[in-house]
Amino acid sequence: MSSCIPHSWGRRPPSQPRQLIACRDTQILPLPDEPLTCLPFGNGRSYGDVGLNNGGALLLTRRLDRFIAFDPTLGVLRAEAGVLLSEILALIVPQGWFLPVTPGTRFVTLGGVIANDVHGKNHHLAGSFGRHVRAFELLRSDGKRLLCTPEQNSDWFQATVSGLGLTGLITWVEIELQRIANPWIVVENQRFGSLDEFLALDAEYESRYPYIVSWIDCAATGRALGRGIYMAGRHAPPGIFKSAPPDRRPLTVPLMLPISLVNQLSVAAFNRLYYHLPRPVRGLTPYPPFFYPLDNLQEWNRLYGRRGFFQYQCVIPPDHAREALLEMLARIAASGQGSMLAVLKRFGNQVSGGLLSFPRPGVTLALDFPNQGQKTLDLLDRLDEVTRQASGAVYPAKDARMSGDSFRRYFPRWAEFSRFVDPRFSSSLWRRVIGEG
Ligand SMILES: Cc1cc2nc3c(=O)[nH]c(=O)nc-3n(C[C@H](O)[C@H](O)[C@H](O)COP(=O)(O)OP(=O)(O)OC[C@H]3O[C@@H](n4cnc5c(N)ncnc54)[C@H](O)[C@@H]3O)c2cc1C
After folding, report:
1. pTM of the complete model
2. Which end of the chain is more exposed for a tag (fewer CB within 10 A), N or C?
3. Is the beta carbon of 164 within 6 A of some atom in ligand 1?
4. Is 87 exposed, middle or buried (0-12, 13-18, 19+ CB in 10 A)?
5. Is 10 touching ligand 1 by the criterion CB < 6 Å?
6. What is the whole-number distance in angstroms between the Cα of residue 102 and the centre of ligand 1?
7. What value does the mean pLDDT take over residues 235-262?
8. Mind giving me the DSSP string for 121-163?
9. To test ligand 1's pocket by mutation, which of 118, 123, 303, 431 has the most ligand atoms within 8 angstroms of CB?
10. DSSP-assigned beta bridge partners for residue 40
């Protein structure tokens, strides 16, 4: 298949659209010929098949890239849905504003972050992205335009925030920004030796820092099981390093590798080194490496080779989090799979706005797994057993394989949601978990 076919970040499953249609104008929804269905495609940073529509058409939204309005006094921004968060940051940071919520990469579109109702390192304070959306326009395949706000067409608002691209095309979005005093981040790093230590640190830091995330060593076993690095940050106060931080030129992985460089040996060695690496307890850092550590190595997904990789992200409710996560970490370590990229974070109690929103109170674990075929799929099924037993959920933005039964348990409002699905829209994920009907 040609490399210009848009694919998902994990390259699993392969992307096989029948038609690619570029959206250029928010006034027009270009539809494929009947009976093909269509699906908006943002910047392809979802890992699995939520943004794929194999056998149908993809509506490429990146050319919907105009800013419509920015009020630097109130911090309100309106832009077309194909604008990237990186483009927004370039505009707003020099004027003292920041995104209210941001995922771990800035190379995502406004439409994409709404459709997955993404979360960031400040979930315990700010909740998910949908909570900061003031309005958007939804264009349906019958030509209807719906202005959606939390008050107006609120049912469509709720269905489209976390709507997985299925309710129609979001043409433009208006969001509320947060004021910052300067673009540098005050960070604090702590090693933790176990999950209990992680939970204790979290209880202490949660009220002191708006941004928290942890790296966890998924290769550790025995007494080292559950160890990791706790990272907390806040925007620096005015006065220190007020000038814009220097932007380093990103490196790029130039080629798709035939085999994965990520394997049992490289993960164990890297993790041991990373855990013990001396690092300052407190420091100041520009915002990009703090929020987007992976953006500095473009196309890093190529390191996993042609077979691609899976990401597994689950959230486990607070009461079951400790036992369920220990069980998962033990299963992952015993399998010898997993990668260096493993992240642990606590979600707060803020209610997410969407019918299919993933964030909910609890602890979330996210890990990459090089694709080793059935062996990897079996492990992910074993992780799902734990998630299901603990009444948790798996994140559709990262998924390429959960069963329909699991999806319906994790997202009990799916039937209510399905009434809002546009009849001309569909996705590989939706057909996989719900079926054609
Ligand atoms: C390195 C990395 C780190 C990440 N970190 C996080 C994180 O911390 N938190 C988190 O929540 N997620 C995270 N993600 C996932 C990412 O934020 C989401 O998958 C996001 O939705 C991707 O946006 P995109 O523009 O690439 O959209 P795509 O992946 O192309 O599409 C995502 C969904 O949005 C729909 N869509 C896109 N545009 C429109 C539109 N205009 N109208 C209607 N629907 C539309 C698509 O149909 C699809 O269902 C991360 C991803 C990567 C690669």
Report:
1. 0.96
2. C
3. yes
4. middle
5. no
6. 11
7. 72
8. TTHHHH--GGGGEEEEEEE-TTS-EEEE-SSTTHHHHHHHTT-
9. 118
10. 59
Q: Report residue 304's pLDDT band, with 50, 70 and 90 as the boundaries.
A: confident
Packing angle of the helix pair 318-335, 374-389 (nearest 10 deg): 160
DSSP 3-state of 353: coil
Q: Is 50 in the pocket of ligand 1 (CB under 6 A)?
A: yes
Cβ–ligand 1 distance for 220 under 6 Å, the answer no
Segment 37-43 shows an average pLDDT of 98
- 369-398 burial: b if 16+ Cβ within 10 Å, else e: bbbbeeebbebbeebbebbbebebbbbbbb
* Whether residue 29 has its Cβ less than 6 Å from ligand 1: no
Q: Could you give all domains of the chain from N- to C-terminal order, each with its CATH number?
A: 184-399 (3.30.70.2520)
pLDDT in tens, 216-244: 998 888 998 899 999 999 999 987 765 55
* Res. 248 pLDDT band, cuts 50 70 90: low
Q: Which phi and psi (to 5°) does residue 187 adopt?
A: -120, 150
Q: Which two tokens stand for residue 33?
A: 């010929």
Place of tokens 């699991």: 406
What are the DSSP calls for 16-56, one per residue?
--SEEEE---TT--PPPSTT--EEEE-SS-SSSSTT--TTS
Q: How far apart are the CA of 224 and the centre of ligand 1, in A?
A: 34
Would you state the pLDDT for residue 436?
59
